[in-house]
Amino acid sequence: MHEAELLFTEVLNCGRPELYLNKDLKLSKEKGALISDVLKKRALGEPLQYILGKSDFYGMQFKVTPDCLIPRPETEILVETARKYPADNILELGTGSGCVAISLAKVLIQPRITATDISDKALAVAKENALNHKVKIDFIKADLFNAYGLLPDTYGLIVSNPPYIASGDIATLQPEVRNEPRAALDGGADGLEMYRRIASGAAQFLVDAGHLILEMGFGQAQDIIKILKKTESFEIIEIAKDYNNIERVVVAQKKVK
Fold first, then answer.
1. Where are the domains of the chain?
2. Rounded CA gap, 161 and 143, in Å?
3. CATH architecture type of domain 67-254
4. What is the pTM of this model?
5. How do residues 139-193 score in pLDDT, each as one tens digit?
């Protein structure tokens, strides 16, 4: 659904078909005021998902707040790709709303999933979403791998959607995007800072032949492949494209010692 449909179906508490079947429906004064308030916030650049407090992802609904990145359709490619590489122990770096970890918990058979984030507020949102979706995930506050409780040579799969926008490009983004947490967007001077950090530490925490799966931005694939190969710990085994035929996800496998 587009934004107007999302807004009116939410306010009127109806489905999309009902919205068009009941064209003569009159809004109450209260609901009219609510829609007016939402439109004013949108005009100021506040994302609709934050206004409504929720977002759809992978066929499910997740709570979102300004403390976490809004789930996007292209990140579903990260989940779809990770499904092909199931593991008993999975680690997600930078979980945000928890949508990736929760989706994997739903589609894989009894994985043990650990999800980290540097933000206490984002972790609170992720925990609430996990509770709502009735999945068990171990949430840990961590700056990537820097946390007590993350064990070396443990994880068969590490997944992440790191921030990948160059710092200098943040100001050029749409107002809606600039309202999202900068820490979840800003990938450093060239947008690749977090990939370097992940690549330098991931092999230590993966089991032999374990997989590292990363979402990436437009045109970044070759640079990220170089970063991963430079560690001499990984082999690149897959590049997955998104719905717009953009290279969106890279899969690297840890070399066997």
1. 3-44, 67-254
2. 14
3. 3-Layer(aba) Sandwich (3.40)
4. 0.91
5. 999 999 988 889 999 999 999 999 999 999 999 999 999 999 999 999 999 999 9
